[in-house]
Amino acid sequence: MAIKDGEQYLRSINQLKPSVIFKGEPLTGDISEHFAFRGLLSTQASLYDMQGQEEYIDSMTYLSPHSSEPVGLSFILPKTKKDLKRRRAMMSLWASRHYGFLGRSPDYMNIALMAYVSAADVISPSNPEHAENLKNYYMYCREHDITLSHAFIQPAGTRLSALTDSFEDSIAAKVHEYNQDGMIVSGAFFLATQAATSEEILIYPPPTLQLDEHNPFTFAFAIPINTPGVTLVCRESYVHGDSTYDYPLSSRFEEMDTLVICDQVQVPRDRIFLYGNASVAHELAQESQFHAQVSHQTLCRYIAKTEFFLGTAENLAKLVDLHSDTMNEQISEIIVALEILKSLLVQAEEKAKKNKWGVMVPDKGTMLVTNTYFPKIYPRMVEIIQQLASSRIVMIPSEKDLQNDASYDLNKYLKISDTEAFDVIALNRLAWELSSSSFAGRQVQYERFFFGSRQNVINRLYQGYSGLRDSSELISRFLES
Amino acid sequence: MAIKDGEQYLRSINQLKPSVIFKGEPLTGDISEHFAFRGLLSTQASLYDMQGQEEYIDSMTYLSPHSSEPVGLSFILPKTKKDLKRRRAMMSLWASRHYGFLGRSPDYMNIALMAYVSAADVISPSNPEHAENLKNYYMYCREHDITLSHAFIQPAGTRLSALTDSFEDSIAAKVHEYNQDGMIVSGAFFLATQAATSEEILIYPPPTLQLDEHNPFTFAFAIPINTPGVTLVCRESYVHGDSTYDYPLSSRFEEMDTLVICDQVQVPRDRIFLYGNASVAHELAQESQFHAQVSHQTLCRYIAKTEFFLGTAENLAKLVDLHSDTMNEQISEIIVALEILKSLLVQAEEKAKKNKWGVMVPDKGTMLVTNTYFPKIYPRMVEIIQQLASSRIVMIPSEKDLQNDASYDLNKYLKISDTEAFDVIALNRLAWELSSSSFAGRQVQYERFFFGSRQNVINRLYQGYSGLRDSSELISRFLES
Amino acid sequence: MAIKDGEQYLRSINQLKPSVIFKGEPLTGDISEHFAFRGLLSTQASLYDMQGQEEYIDSMTYLSPHSSEPVGLSFILPKTKKDLKRRRAMMSLWASRHYGFLGRSPDYMNIALMAYVSAADVISPSNPEHAENLKNYYMYCREHDITLSHAFIQPAGTRLSALTDSFEDSIAAKVHEYNQDGMIVSGAFFLATQAATSEEILIYPPPTLQLDEHNPFTFAFAIPINTPGVTLVCRESYVHGDSTYDYPLSSRFEEMDTLVICDQVQVPRDRIFLYGNASVAHELAQESQFHAQVSHQTLCRYIAKTEFFLGTAENLAKLVDLHSDTMNEQISEIIVALEILKSLLVQAEEKAKKNKWGVMVPDKGTMLVTNTYFPKIYPRMVEIIQQLASSRIVMIPSEKDLQNDASYDLNKYLKISDTEAFDVIALNRLAWELSSSSFAGRQVQYERFFFGSRQNVINRLYQGYSGLRDSSELISRFLES
Amino acid sequence: MAIKDGEQYLRSINQLKPSVIFKGEPLTGDISEHFAFRGLLSTQASLYDMQGQEEYIDSMTYLSPHSSEPVGLSFILPKTKKDLKRRRAMMSLWASRHYGFLGRSPDYMNIALMAYVSAADVISPSNPEHAENLKNYYMYCREHDITLSHAFIQPAGTRLSALTDSFEDSIAAKVHEYNQDGMIVSGAFFLATQAATSEEILIYPPPTLQLDEHNPFTFAFAIPINTPGVTLVCRESYVHGDSTYDYPLSSRFEEMDTLVICDQVQVPRDRIFLYGNASVAHELAQESQFHAQVSHQTLCRYIAKTEFFLGTAENLAKLVDLHSDTMNEQISEIIVALEILKSLLVQAEEKAKKNKWGVMVPDKGTMLVTNTYFPKIYPRMVEIIQQLASSRIVMIPSEKDLQNDASYDLNKYLKISDTEAFDVIALNRLAWELSSSSFAGRQVQYERFFFGSRQNVINRLYQGYSGLRDSSELISRFLES
User: Fold this and answer.
1) How far is D67 from chain B (nearest CA, A)?
2) Domains, chain A, ranges and CATH?
3) Alpha-carbon distance C389 to D16, whole Å?
4) Measured between alpha carbons, how far is C41 from C44 in angstroms, rounded to an integer?
5) Does B420 touch chain A (CB under 8 A)?
6) What share of chain D in percent tops pLDDT 90?
7) Burial code of D38-55, b = ≥16 C-beta within 10 A, e = fewer?
8) What phi, psi does D233 have (nearest 5°)?
9) What is the model's pLDDT at position A212?
């Protein structure tokens, strides 16, 4: 079978041994045993397991047009609305397993890659080989169920350096050399989430403004994560223990973010997708409809996550059982968000359109709206949990406190009505992790800036929304009537 | 034909001569000539005209199962999702004519009546005659295209009087006498919008809490608007002139709100739909799925109105042509609202379900969400117009100022770039009427409280949302996993 | 006495007969009899009456250093904090009479003129005559208790014309000719509030960016309001009746806004304060500390107005006597605003500093904060009134409805508990006028943009706040510690 | 000297060895060496050091009326506004040392104790001994510079148990026995912050509603923190390392919160301040003016903290040096908050009044407003830091990454313009700890609920605000005018 299972995934990740820096030291040994990664890897392995299970295989795979083997549905090049619905059903299954906490469950990059390859013809006129490379790479990933990460943002101080410094001194990501064997690349990329737990990495910086015919700052490629010269610098881990009682979320869903540094990395010729041509790079970004396609995945994820918030909010309210007007209003805010997200998903599929290459694309306007909406309501949902959990979560005992409390009897004092202290604390610990912990803080920033700064996301909507002109003309006609 | 046209509508309204009090005096003469009503009546007549026009008749009517004549699609008892979509298409046409400003365009009450009649079987066991009356009345309205208004809220000080005062002294709406000929009713009802411009009025107060077997405060009926004993007290009119240049909205869309006072009104026997049985009254309110059905109409209206705001906002921004980040964000807020409303409509139809009597009902949860969402964003959209229009709308000249300005040359000073003063002022006057005038103020209050106080609307959602239990259990299972 | 009383004021206003355009026609007859002006004029006359009354004269006047006659305290050149406190006490008395609804009660311009004259020495080096003119004019106004208005903003499309068009074609306000007798000026100015009810007008457009040595777009002067060539174009009036029952606010406090058009206006030589020198104009604007000084007046006004909102909110809540959590929160929001405004006033005086000319200036930072804060909370207070008044204000009967209701008995149905219908309706009409009428809408825009666009007000604060550097360095030191 | 220094403080804390449970195990060894406490203790020791230093001693102490030794100014029973200003100056010095992050720097409890003792005469009539105990205890604390903590909130499930269960079974805090030697108490109390780093603890639960003459659930007392039967259960520590570079805040300011469990605790007779009399307990709570007095301290703290946020925000904005409108607006929001807090402090002192025992109390209304305002703006300031820091803080390297980066050269890629990577990262780590870490999350909850739930704080204001009646009557008079 082309799909892999959890065990295959873990084995592959452990064998790759990329250069990972954790707290200033190279990480050694099996990643799957490392405290900062094992919970995440176990969750991710369970995702891969799902797709092969009898219960799910039909709804999570399709037969590869190449190998006739079942391959993951998130790889599919959708041609019909039905394809979109199948893909969505598959992604919803994964999202319901990780409750939307994994920003980089594998389906995200599978769709991203598919989006680029769907517009590969943009590359062909200027470089048919690169276009072919991209198509082959997509097929390779699909047939081997490759776990892919990506990097495209450069650190704040580096990008301008392409314009202001000499090529030699520039610290912007750049191609040093391009020749028969491939190309040599250096540069730094921010925020490759889950890079250390992926098999490959796709690097595709947004093209610079430099308009030279031959632009060494413009390129795209994919390489194995353990390619020499690639270093992954980890942030601090927010895993503070293995107890799923104390850390119900971080013990399972803490994705590591890394800074990717490429130092004279040799990219093989057949892995180059773009080089030197900024206008083609722009066109590919545009024509791939990247945002509309990957948002299909993120929207499934948003829905699962919002449902998780709703249940937590309701259970917190039920715990103290007052149901004040204020509580009802707060919970209703989450209900409203959940149904809005579900509706946006229905509409995105309902109004989907084929692009010029026959690929079915979820409605762009709807998706741009979603990408503006969720970063605004997510922090508010977090705040609602804080408000409902109140000062009760400032001091929460831990599992061990409950186990060893013979002398001070927590159980006696911390139960609420019929709810045992054990369950009260479990819910409070969840509320804490969801709303106030470092894990929560990173999730807030992650969701808030998932598709870029607020201003970028808004301008993308404002400029990309086709209905604006109609509304404007409606008013002009009205005033003339 | 069973559908009427604008001329028939105006003739009927003028002939009825109900008792209307305007500024403390009885209104005399043709209503269609009165400055406070003529603009509205002209707009409403144009709605009736539409449905008979060749361009629209097929999409706005269906063949009556009774008479085989074309009747208005808003009367339809929908049995399929396709029926819902047809009904929506019809309502969207009307909404696009009045841009959502008419809260009581006739389709609203047509659907309300249909909703009640769809659950008429709730009444049958206790009183088959009343159930039959309701069905006959629906058919009468549909076949004669009756323009209906309704009243159900009692003034703040009166309702409690049913519980605290003797029956004789009580100022709550009540049935004095119930006999072979019908019943005699007194009471006051707030906020019958467009009562003076309707042919009939349906009066159906929410049942009181009194649980006596025979409850004289529980009833429902419909009567001609000119029935003796019925007085309609108007509020101040916000029509300040006929000029569509100076008053682009109020000159066309100012619906009059009235207080309805019934003094010993004789209700004919065949117009009684409910009497004395509070539990049946409650059940009918519930089983009719009133909110889910009429919200199908209001949602079409919300979309048309939001589109109007979007166009106005965009044109205001284009006028000064700065497109600051702040402006883009403000306009994007309206885009987001518009697409959310459209999505909610798609989902409401997509998830519609048949009730036990085989009537197709738009998804209740989606509709309750809509009814919570719109009252929150509507005032915000008004505020966005205020912000975009800025101090420019504090002083706006009028049509006459432009006509007579030989000596002071407004045209010279008030044009902006290529936009002539005439067009600048037209847009500013629209912005004023939409955001800051008495007309605007009444619209804000109307939309804010359309389905009741914020707390009522939220509690209706919180209690009626079926997904809450699922989410709650999801978390309980997660914590046990 | 140098101070005037109401009768003198009205006589003067009626005698001036400036060129006022109302609904496209020249206004004739006594302004004090015109429906759109009489309520305002009566209120303003009562302000002038106050200052001469035995009860108030000591706290509202001081002895002129010139004439030893009592003159209005708002004219004072404050030298001590005690002077500031006296001035504030005087302004609070006027504000408590008009409840903060008059944006241009005479004290505003009195302080504005004082601010400019306090920095007149900025003008002397380049033109001692102009500096002298300004000082003389201030003394003239103080000794004759002149009612002054002002204009400085040019219509959106005109200002740029100074840069883009030839001098001849330019529609920016400009000096055509400057000679021994004075100067000839043309141009349009937005939003002179109360111009038609003032005796004089001060015109002082912000200097353009043009840096020519001799700049015909830079000037300042004051002239009698009836100077030939000056036309005042009124907006629509929001006075809809004289009844203080139906229109408790607009019948008393509706200030007219006008567009001022100057067509070849001859300015006498002794009334020119600035001409041609843009850098002096900039310096005067800066050194006068205009914002810090006039904000002392506006802050008194804000406090009176906020107190008015608080009382209205509380009475609305008491009417239905539920005191839900939501109501308490809404009212508390206004309490918080009121006490914050009061505190800002205390601090502004406490931290006041003398400028280089020995004039005591309220703390600039505090005042810039106030000017950012109030435009944000004012619309929110309006919204709170809307929320508390709820749908009850959608339909409110009028005074005449109550007088003539023999046949339909409003009194019976509209009382709430012990509050008679007459009082219920009076409160509701107030809530309507305060929150939803055209009068309310104009007040919202007026307060929102009183000191310019939100962005301007914020940038003025951000750039003018001296504490920013300290805070920044605090953090730098902390990080190094 | 009566004041202690840091060394004395640390020695005392280490010697006491109270029963502290940390991660389910008793804490052994010196607390000042424990990773979770050492940073905090070092900061707190530096506070004690300050007051004895020549630079500060005059402004931080006053001469004890008892011993004529210098004692801490936060103990003073203020009699004049000057006393308040001296106290404020002292507290501002401490707050500027801990930047407002310590919710329980010693001055807080010093003022709380002073507030209770100022109203000790409330206790005298019913029990002169208890009143005397309280006075003596205050003197003891002042003369020995005792570090005091307190506890008064009971866990959500326990308090009702006083009413619903038998005395024997009740899990509400209660007095088992009261006799010649003192009393025996059991119960649990939430959220004693810094209990493990204090010398004594004051326990004073709000009186229950039970109105029996003799109420065993009503009491107040203070005991040494190491009294047998007292167990302090710690929450998880948010100290994740000693590096002040990586953890600039938590390494210094992480206050531990504990659950206090009393199991048959023997309270000595001379430490009982209240017993059995619920009405006296209520009166003491009221008459002590607890909120108005301690808010004097919290307001100083709020100001220091807000200034810290302002500096951080400004430095974040300067780092990327764009100064967009949005950034200016965000920073201005913090400026507004800072100046409002400062103004509230000025007014609270300016309007302070003596109570019936001659103690000067900061203006109550102003303080209740402050307590409503800060919990609302604090989370918003946190959000502003998140927005300004953007996705840059999702992945931040650590000190060790910078030290060992020979092979991957972080310095090269992470500098921004002229700011070295070392400083960029330092600022980002601060932004992370301030806005997104567990430390930040706990601070948000702590500030949000410092004086109780939002609803409690609001109702306290609404009911305690004396200006409400005046405003209400103002409107009534206006409507009658």
Assistant:
1) 59
2) 6-287 (2.40.110.10), 290-480 (1.20.140.10)
3) 60
4) 5
5) no
6) 88
7) bbbbebbbbbbbbbbeee
8) -95, 120
9) 66
Helices B81-98, B38-52: axis angle to 10 degrees equals: 140
Q: Is C282 on the interface with B (CB under 8 A)?
A: no
> What's the whole-model pTM score?
0.97
Contact between D436 and A436 using a beta-carbon 8 Å cutoff: no
Residues on chain D touching C373 (C-beta within 8 angstroms): 336, 340
Torsion of CA B120, B125, B127, B129, to 10 degrees: 60
Token pair of D257 as six digits:
């919160």
Which chain C residues are closer than 8 Å to B21 by Cβ? 401, 404-405, 408
pLDDT for res B162? 79
How does pLDDT run across D275-316, given as a tens digit for each residue?
Answer: 999 999 999 999 999 999 999 999 999 999 999 999 999 999
Burial C122-146 (b: 16+ CB within 10 A, else e): bbeeebeebbebbbebbbebbbbbb
Q: What is the nearest CA distance from B161 to chain D, expressed in angstroms?
A: 26
Q: Are the beta carbons of D317 and D310 closer than 8 angstroms?
A: no
8 A C-beta contact, residue D42 and residue D252: yes
Print the SS3 string covering chain C. CCCCCHHHHHHHHHHHCCEEEECCEECCCCHHHCCCCHHHHHHHHHHHHHHHCCCCHHHHEEECCCCCCEEEHHHCCCCCHHHHHHHHHHHHHHHHHHCCCCCCCCHHHHHHHHHHHHCHHHCCCCCHHHHHHHHHHHHHHHHHCCCEEEECECCCCCCCHHHHCCCCCCCCCEEEEEECCEEEEEEEEEEEECHHHCCEEEECCCCCCCCCCCEEEEEEEEEECCCCCEEEEECCCCCCCCCCCCCCCHHHHCCCEEEEEEEEEEEEHHHEEEEECHHHHHHHHHHCCHHHHHHHHHHHHHHHHHHHHHHHHHHHHHHHCCCCHHHHHHHHHHHHHHHHHHHHHHHHHHCCEECCCCCEECCHHHHHHHHHHHHHHHHHHHHHHHHHHHHHHCCCCCHHHHHCHHHCCHHHHHCECCECHHHHHHHHHHHHHHHCCHHHHHHHHHHHCCCCCHHHHHHHHHHHCCHHHHHHHHHHHHHHC
User: CB distance from B325 to chain D under 8 Å?
Assistant: yes
pLDDT tens-digit map of A155-202: 988 877 877 888 888 899 999 999 999 999 999 998 899 999 999 999
Query: Rounded mean pLDDT of B432-449?
Result: 98
User: Which chains are adjacent to chain A, needing at least 3 Cβ pairs under 8 Å?
Assistant: B, C, D
- Going from the C-alpha of C192 to that of each of A413, B378, C153, C296, D449, the distances in angstroms are 69, 32, 9, 20, 48
Residue B399 forms contact with A (CB below 8 Å): no
Q: By C-alpha distance, which of D78, D73, D117 is closest to D91?
A: D73
C164: contact with B, CB 8 A cutoff: no
For residue A214, what pLDDT is reported? 81
| Nearest Cα to Cα of residue B373 among B395, B345, B412, B410 | B345
Chain C, nearest residue to B419 by Cα: C157
* D336 closest CB neighbour out of C336, C373, C472: C373
Q: Does B326 reach chain D within 8 Å, measured CB to CB?
A: yes
pLDDT in tens, A304-330: 999 999 999 999 999 987 678 899 999
- Our CA-based measurement puts residue A45 at a distance from the nearest CA of chain B, in whole angstroms, of 17
Q: Which of A158-185 are b and which e, b meaning 16 or more Cβ less than 10 Å from the residue's Cβ?
A: bbbbbeeeeeeebbbbbbeebeeebbbb
Contacts of C453 in chain B (CB under 8 A): 390-391
How far away is chain C from the Cα of A328, in angstroms, using its nearest Cα? 12
Model pLDDT, residue A210: 62
